[in-house]
Amino acid sequence: MTAPKHTNHLAREKSPYLLQHAHNPVDWFAWNAAAFAKARAENKPIFLSIGYSTCHWCHVMERESFEDEAVGKFLNEHFVSIKVDREERPDVDKIYMTFVQNTVGGGGWPLNVFLAPDLKPFFGGTYFPPAPRHGRPSFLDLLQQIVNVWQNCRDDVLQSAEEITARLEVATASVAGAAALTPDVLREAGLKFKSMFDPRQGGFGGAPKFPQPSIPAFLLRYAKSFTDAAAHDMVIRTCDAMAAGGIHDQLGGGFARYAVDAEWLVPHFEKMLYDNAQLAQLYLDAFLITGDARHAVVVRDILDYVLRDMTHPEGGFYSAEDADSEGHEGKFYCWTHDELAKLLSPEEFIVAAQHFGITKEGNFVDHSHPTPLAGQNVLSIVEPNIPAADQPMLAAAKAKMLAVRATRIRPHLDDKILASWNGLMIGAFARAAAVLGEEKYRVAAEKNAAFIREKLWDASSKTLFHRWRDGERDQVQLLEAYAFQLAGVIELYETTLAPQHLDFAIALAEAMLAKFYDATNGGFWQGTAGAADLILRVKDDYDGAEPSGNSVATLALLQLAAITGRDDFNQAAAATLRFFATRLNQFPQAVAFLLHALDFSLAAPRRVVIAGDPLSSGARQLLAAAHSVYQPNEVVLGNVSSVESFAQTLPARDGAVAYVCSGQACQPPTRRPEELRRLLA
């Protein structure tokens, strides 16, 4: 009879990441008052470990250290150990990541930080190895050093924690900028991003190479505003390189989080909802600008993957898929030469091997595993120009490969549903429905919006909670949940003109302003006031793999102001741009998505008003035409409900008609989609 498995406090949690650690010998707590009280009562330091369920190096450190009985015993004796899912609590992660970045010079996950019982940090880092390596002590040696310092120099440690927290408060306290916000800011940012371009492989920066869709999406705006063909070409080159690379799942669709190399070949295999939402939007932009069907194929590829593998039966979108399966990174996705030669006919194998660059040696080794697999090939498009006569064989080979891959053990699915990331994906599905004419994408966006309103929105208190999983929602409120949802719901309204979506967008905007907006200085706080578990209140201003809540909120408020005529929305957005003016001028690479908002604010946004029954065939055709031209500083609205007062005066004339307006002036109305496209172009 086997001994019962040890269980710690995490067994009662809903986060897939916390549940992964529920049977560690470490007596983990969640981030809660009980853990803080225990640390204070026993006067022990807190060991805080932050990660997420599809994080490869988090798995490695768990396997090496947190599953080790000796490590568990030592932590339990000397520390109160707390696990945090950084996707559920980005506000907690932001504080301690900033500390580590400012003290160590870099960051990442797992993020491991030592805190005094009052939650103030005094030492931290990322991954710690199980044995001394590259000048780093083993994790257990480090723990012993921390305990020694805590026991013998506690007053110094507490003093240091106080001083560090004071410095953190200064470092995170943004001061309203006095710099001018003119088109020159956009021009200089565009030149900066162009200087970062990799002319050989595409992308902006070197290895490891992240898509960072905010940068190429801004460059497309810049290219249009400043008539810069070179910037346009850089983005299209990047889109094509990513689509052909191993970062793009060539069989199953969707993109991995980043490539470890400069060639987009070997990915860090986890797939994140937020990446795929933003990339779908980027490829929609590329398709509208180039008319190249390849870009539309990539959009469908992403969204069909999400519908197939990342969607709850009731319509919510899951968060991520892991990099690892069966303990090996990429095992689900990679192929050996011999297994493909055995699976495919000789003719199919020749074509597939040529197309995907299959070799005996392979192109990927999982160096983090003690016994890496040999000869693994990440699929990328090495030879795109397969003759037409061979295309059926390539299609047959891909179908066989996908069928066999479906029988493999899948990577872990993080099935929590986050209001923030779902907002990004609602927008992608809604816009794709309009641009590509795909009704199933509109249905998916509508179903997801209904899910969010039912599971995570409390209409009576105008409260949006952040996470739902397994029948339960959390009690966390975050700016990015409101901001990302607001942006997505606005796109859903622009796609459908359904008044209930506009009403929900207004309710979200009003709640966001009430809970997070700094009316004195401008800008939005990441969390609500008075949170007892946060040592700092921060205004997040970094657009990295995800855009910041401030950036998305600003653009969404500008768009909603143009649709509704609400000056309070416009004023809050303008004040937020002024607050971050210095950052926009001096560090545009850190606020790439906020540049989108600045571009919108400096333009005279055009309003496409479609008057008439939005469900009529004429209105649907005009809606499709309105979304068929690349015009990032445009909004689409109806002439009823909560839209701005001038739009309400524009009549339908013998059916649906479209007006293209700027200020109080409009072009003559048209009911012809091709004429509307001409007016917009």
Summed up, what is this model?
The chain is α+β, with helices and mostly antiparallel strands and 681 residues long. It folds into four domains: 9-172, Glutaredoxin (3-Layer(aba) Sandwich); 183-323 and 414-603, Glycosyltransferase (Alpha/alpha barrel), CATH 1.50.10; 324-410, no CATH class; 607-680, 3-Layer(aba) Sandwich (Glutaredoxin).
What does this structure look like?
By secondary structure, this protein is an alpha+beta fold. It folds into four domains: about 10-170, 3-Layer(aba) Sandwich (Glutaredoxin); about 185-325 and about 415-605, Glycosyltransferase; about 325-410, no CATH class; about 605-680, Glutaredoxin (3-Layer(aba) Sandwich). It is about 50% helix and about 10% strand. It has 26 helices and 21 strands. Strands 1-3-2-4-5 form a five-stranded mixed β-sheet, with helices on both faces. The protein has a four-stranded mixed β-sheet with strand order 19-18-20-21, with helices on both faces. It starts with 15 loop residues before the first helix and ends with a helix.
* Number of separate structural domains: 4
Tally the beta strands.
21
| Helical proportion, percent range | 40-55%
Biggest β-sheet strands, sense, barrel: 5 strands, mixed
The count of helical stretches stands at: 26
Question: Mean of the pLDDT scores?
Answer: 95
- Are there runs of 5+ residues with pLDDT below 50, and where? none
Query: Which band does the percent of strand residues land in?
Result: 5-15%
Shape verdict: globular
Give the end-to-end Cα distance, rounded to a whole number of Å.
Answer: 74 Å
Report the radius of gyration as a whole number of Å.
26 Å
The CATH class of the largest domain is: Mainly Alpha
Q: SS-based structural class?
A: alpha+beta
Per CATH, the architecture of the largest domain is: Alpha/alpha barrel
User: How would you describe the oligomerization state of the chains in this entry?
Assistant: single chain
- For this structure, the CATH topology of the largest domain is Glycosyltransferase
Strand order of the largest sheet: 1-3-2-4-5
